[in-house]
Amino acid sequence: MSAAKPAAEGSHLSALLRIAPYLWPKNETELRIRVVVALVLVAAAKAANVLVPIAYARAVDALAPKDGIGAAITVPVALLLAYGGLRVMSSAFAELRNAIFAKVQARAGRRVALEVFEHLHALSMRFHMDRATGGLSRVIERGVRGIATSLNFLLFNIIPTIVEILFVALILWWVFAASFAITMLVTIAAYVAFTLLFTNWRLRFRRTMNQTDEEANTKAVDSLLNYETVKYFGNEGHEARRYNESLTRYERAYVTSETTLNMLNAGQACIMAVGLTVTMLLAGSGIAAGTMTVGDLVMVNTYLIQLYLPLNILGFAYREIKQGLTDMEQMFALLEVPAEVRDAPGAVPLAKGPGEIRFEDVRFGYRPDREILKGVSFTVAPGKMLAIVGPTGAGKSTISRLLFRFYDATGGAVTVDGQDVRSVTQASLRAAMGVVPQDTVLFNDTIRYNIAYGRPGATDAEVEAAARAAQVHDFVLRLPEGYATRVGERGLKLSGGEKQRVAIARTILKDPRILILDEATSALDTRTEQEIQAALRDVARNRTTLVIAHRLSTVVEADEIIVLQDGRIAERGTHASLIAEDGLYAEMWRRQAQAVAAAEAAARAQAEADLDRPRTGRLGEAIA
Ligand SMILES: Nc1ncnc2c1ncn2[C@@H]1O[C@H](COP(=O)(O)OP(=O)(O)OP(=O)(O)O)[C@@H](O)[C@H]1O
Ligand SMILES: [Mg+2]
Asked: Structural domains in the chain?
């Protein structure tokens, strides 16, 4: 992930401010009530917690033998019951608070994740080309988890603990003496300072540990994904060595991280022990002087130990909050990325027209320093077919991307039915067009789902009709699971030709006004190609069609053919006129015709050889 730059400290606050509206959602009274109740419960749990040592201390005092035995036997029972009740309340409130707040937190996570997801889809092709998709989904995942952890620790751990500390300090001051409160506060201040400094110092080991862990993981995954390649080259030993190197680094980082954690824990325990001892000394001298009871000593002791528990995880909470806020920052940073291609203000839906496409002196480059299209002009009349041919990398697929408005041209204009594609809504523009792309990628779902994707809501009969038109129906029926067959990630379980036919069926089902076929049949063998060409001709009839092809035999019938070379239109005309011109196209045609002839000759020779061999065999036998 390239965006892993740690967010600045100051922006942590902004991450918290961004999440606030999700926690206090408009028009969702139920969630707001839950927030309030959860906060009240936190306060109640803490209040019960603060009262526990008081009940405990008074019970101890009541139990301590004074003048006679048994005089006070009824009083401690009530106090002990109160003690027990308060303890129960303290933890019951905490659990109840968790249960009530869970929905608020889950809802906030869901809404943020959805918002980021929708935004990612709104972002431009350029953005997605530059990003690793796996990385993006991890940013969302980590961001949502970050919301949960930072909220939980901040709202229900850190802030309540601070409040509790202040309360206890007040009680100690009020009931006993300032020295108790001051000792406690100094102890806690030293504890917190030590923990934060130490944790900050430790973060680097933790980071190395995470990094080396990730590195080892990536290597293992990459190596297993390339299972075939590893075997082809017999490089198992090499892979194991690389993996082991990463594992060794992880091992070292882990040990350092653990050792420093133990140091942190030991330091924390020392500070607490010193604080406790000083307090006990103070209390002991108080008892000796007769100003305090044994119960008082127990109470002070209990307070400190009670505070010690939440403080114990302070280092962990600090790290988690910091990490959580950073993750949230990164996720929200995605929301800040502006979409490059956006509907113009006041964009209108594409008006229904006959489907004329026009490129007027279009210039475009993916990067400013390399222009791909250097002034391309052509018009496809409604219902006609334009073929674009030319060497690889000439910019043919780029033309279809501009038509779909995945990018905006840097010069000139692309119009559909006289409307500039930049002035209409992207949704209406794309609804009017269908494409069979060069590299078909399918969803990891069933064949039926993938075909129906062309028009969600299509009936099974419609899906099958489209499949028939794309010559894929019979193939599907031969599969054990038929249309319910899953195609694997990106459609990997289908052959290239099968995938391409599913893509054709999907576009046939969409039934667009304008059709773009980018090497739509390149992955098919010649016979299937001829069959599908026939089907595609049917589909293309009366539709404006843009055909991009390497195999020139498939574009012979186009109304116009343009030869794209080096970002410019080198030649244009019909097949006959271009052959007559005897230029680039004629040259390409001759070369392909030669190749076809050579292939046919080879096939004929093979067939003859096949016929010959058994004959000679039999002849030989006959002679023998
Ligand atoms: N996202 C991108 N970023 C940068 N350069 C790109 C990008 N996509 C394509 N290109 C470059 O633009 C040029 C034109 O690409 P395009 O896909 O239009 O070629 P093409 O004519 O369709 O080739 P082919 O016949 O091989 O499909 C190529 O040189 C390619 O490297
Ligand atoms: Mg291409």
From this structure: 20-336 (1.20.1560.10), 357-587 (3.40.50.300)
